Amino acid sequence: MATYTQSELIKMCMVSTVETLLPNKPEIKAVINNVPLSCMTTTQRVEIIGEDISRSTLDEVKESDCFSLALDETNDINDTAQLAIFVRYSLKNKYHERLLTVLSLKGRATGSIIFEEFEKFMLDASLPWDKIVGVATDGAPAMVGKNSGFVKFLKDKCPNLLACHCIIHESVLCAKLNPAYAELMTKSMKMINFLRSQSGLRHRQLRQYLTEMDEQYIELLTYNSVR
């Protein structure tokens, strides 16, 4: 069951908070208890909010003069390939970055299949091809292959497209390939794995310590190898 369907647990936490902070305000507790937060209600509300955000993002992208894309493909916990598509566009003299969509890829994740799914999304969303000015991907053959990569197919549609290698992937590759960073990366990975992955208790203690110190970030990300 999805996390956002755990409505009763959320309500219990809200009631406990009111009882602790506002013990002389029973009317607030009564109002919270009367809020309909069944699993179905919460799921429907989250779906409505998600659809509204998606619709407004598509409307803004269509209204903008041009936009660029960033794509990354990975496997979820069920080994289903997921293609995340981010969009960056300018509207009313302000730049916006949004998660445009996530596409599930059934079977193989070749460049042609990725482009076919992307093309279907563009047609369903009625997004104009001629407004795509740039795309950033990783260095996987399915993305940048000379003859059958996603970027090649996209350039056939958008001849003036500016394609680049994602700067985050470039940075990690630089650290991985350059011997000068090998020792630093190895030590950093060992420390992160020691604090984050080897012990649930140690991980919770780290989060609690960072929270008590009012740090901006209270979590460490585990290392992921990229291409």
Any overview of this molecule?
- The chain is of the alpha/beta class and 227 residues long.
- It has 3 domains: 3-37, no CATH class; 54-165, 2-Layer Sandwich (Nucleotidyltransferase, domain 5); 167-227, no CATH class.
- It has helices at 7-21, 26-33, 39-63, 111-125, 141-144, 150-157, 167-177, 179-196, 200-212; strands at 67-75, 81-91, 94-105, 132-137, 162-165.
- A hairpin with a 2-residue loop joins strand 2 and strand 3 (94-105).
- The model has no long low-confidence stretch (mean pLDDT 82).
Compact overview of the structure:
This protein is of the alpha/beta class.
Number of helices: 9
The N- and C-terminal alpha carbons lie at a distance of 33 Å
State the name of the first-level CATH class of the largest domain: Alpha Beta
Please give the domain count.
3
Share of residues in helices? 40-55%
Strand order of the largest sheet: 3-2-1-4-5
Give the H and E element order.
Answer: HHHEEEHEHHEHHH
